[in-house]
Amino acid sequence: MASEHQIIALVEQLTHKVQILKGILDNGKQEIKRLEQENATLNERLKEQQSLVKELQKKQVNSEKKTPKSKDFGKLVQNNLSGTDTNAALKKQLDEYIRELERCIAHLSSLS
């Protein structure tokens, strides 16, 4: 049989191990709380980003609706130039339209 001294030593060892396990448990609980807070923050940021994406997609769709189709560009050029314009003026006007198209394309590309 174990002596009283040995039993006390075993109880002290068990008490020490329980204290260590309690410390590990407390650290685990703190880590869980931290991770839950981080998760909540990340979920909120995700919702904000998703909302922003939806908003940008709506703007892109709206800007695409407002942009005339390519077949309409000929009509625009024809309507904006009078019959007395020279070839140089026509070329200048077309160059301006091309630059404007490039700016529109760049703007639409920056939205996505």
Task: Briefly summarize what is shown.
By secondary structure, this protein is mostly helical.
Q: What does the secondary structure layout of this molecule look like, with pairings?
A:
Blueprint: H1 4-66, H2 70-80, H3 87-111
Region (Disordered): 55-78
Biased composition (Basic and acidic residues): 55-74
Oligomer: single chain
How many strands, what sense, and barrel or not for the largest sheet? none
Q: What overall geometry do the principal axes of the alpha carbons give?
A: rod-shaped
Through-space gap between termini: 79 Å
Estimate the helix proportion, in percent. Answer: over 70%
Radius of gyration: 36 Å
The low-confidence runs, each spanning 5 or more residues with pLDDT under 50, are none
* N-to-C order of helices and strands: HHH
**Tally of helical segments:** 3
Q: Please tell me the overall pLDDT.
A: 83
What is the tally of beta strands?
0
Structure class: mainly alpha
What is the beta-strand fraction? under 5%
Region (Disordered): 55-78
Biased composition (Basic and acidic residues): 55-74
